[in-house]
Amino acid sequence: MEIYSVMLKKIFISTLPLLALAGCGSTPPIQAQDKTVSYQGKVYVFGGQYDKKLKEIQLTVNGDPLLKGRFAPYTPTLTLASDYQNVNISSYCYFGSVLSSQAGVFGVVAGAIQSSNSKSGDKCDVKIGGETIESLYF
Quick check: helix, strand or coil at residue 82? Predict the structure, then answer.
């Protein structure tokens, strides 16, 4: 009986590192650096995060989640809009990684085309009242 107890302890101890690594399997969202903008006497702090696995972006204004959306398959652009304290805030996002992360020949060709057009980065242009006021880079 004691041999089984010792064996179980050894097995448990030897699997602890594997259990610890299993929790590290998910990739955290990519965070954009916050940008502070003054517009018509008001201060806005824009931020955002991009979940690569879900291809989902969320933009915040003054810490409040305001704009959220997902990139459609094989589509690197996303336009979002909403109102924040009676002010129209929108964004135009271009994420080259959405295409270049595709497997196979498509991803290679998409990456080459984007590089030739100087559009390989991941960014969102933030607009207030239709006027581009800042860019968030991911």
Answer: strand
